[in-house]
């Protein structure tokens, strides 16, 4: 499945799913148009959400410029959110394990 043994969503596995890749392709195409594209979620903070951990990371990797809107209405880049999480201490070995799984348990 798409969850680890503790019930947390596994974003690495999700990012490989055909349905996810198809959706990313659609967003990439829409981003080339003159319209703005908005992806909504119920989380108030991007660093706690799949917007950043899965969707934002993937879109950034394929060259789509994105902005996350936080609970105060501020627009934050993917890099801004990463800096908030790392607090000046970047992960020397790539993406940290905490960013590859959901906070909550769903399964």
Q: Average the pLDDT over all residues and give the rounded result.
A: 84
Overall, the morphology is globular
Low-confidence stretches: none
* Number of contiguous helices: 4
How much of the sequence lies in strands comes to 5-15%
The helix content, as a percent range, equals 25-40%
- Write the H/E string, N to C: EHHHEEHE
What is the makeup of the main sheet?
Answer: 2 strands, antiparallel
Give the terminus-to-terminus CA distance: 10 Å
* Major sheet: arrangement of strands: 1-4
- For the secondary structure, the number of strands is 4
Structural class: alpha+beta
Gyration radius from CA atoms, angstroms? 14 Å
In words, what does this structure look like?
- By secondary structure, the protein is an alpha+beta fold.
- Helix content is 36%, strand content 11%.
- It has helices at 11-14, 18-31, 50-61, 78-86, and strands spanning 8-10, 68-69, 75-76, 101-105.
- The strands form two sheets. A two-stranded antiparallel ribbon has the order 1-4. A two-stranded antiparallel ribbon has the order 2-3.
- The protein is globular and about 40 Å long.
- The termini are close together.
